[in-house]
Amino acid sequence: MAHMDRIVVDPAVVHGRPFIHGTRMRVSDVLSLLAAGASEQEIVEDYPYLTSEDVRACLHYAAAQADHTIVRAS
Question: Is 0.90 topped by the overall pTM?
């Protein structure tokens, strides 16, 4: 998975929320920026410690979290 080496969870950093390795930037912050209309390029320009790969890793992480087991009616 593309996000596995970039997205980490550490109880001692940002209150245990998922963040980008080597930063204190939460995945939710990057996703909020994207949802508000910021482009990947704008985010990387505004936060020079992030890379395009970091932004894409946040999207991959969110997609993986949104996937769930199919519940079938009995």
Answer: no
Angle separating helix axes 27-35 and 52-66, nearest 10 degrees = 90
Yes or no: say if 54 and 69 are a contact pair by the CB < 8 Å rule. Answer: no
Any residues with CB less than 8 A from the CB of 10 and at least 6 apart, and which?
16, 19
Residuewise pLDDT in 10s, the chain (74 residues): 566 789 999 999 999 999 999 999 999 999 999 999 999 999 999 999 999 999 999 999 999 999 877 778 77
Domains of the chain with CATH codes: 7-66 (1.10.10.10)
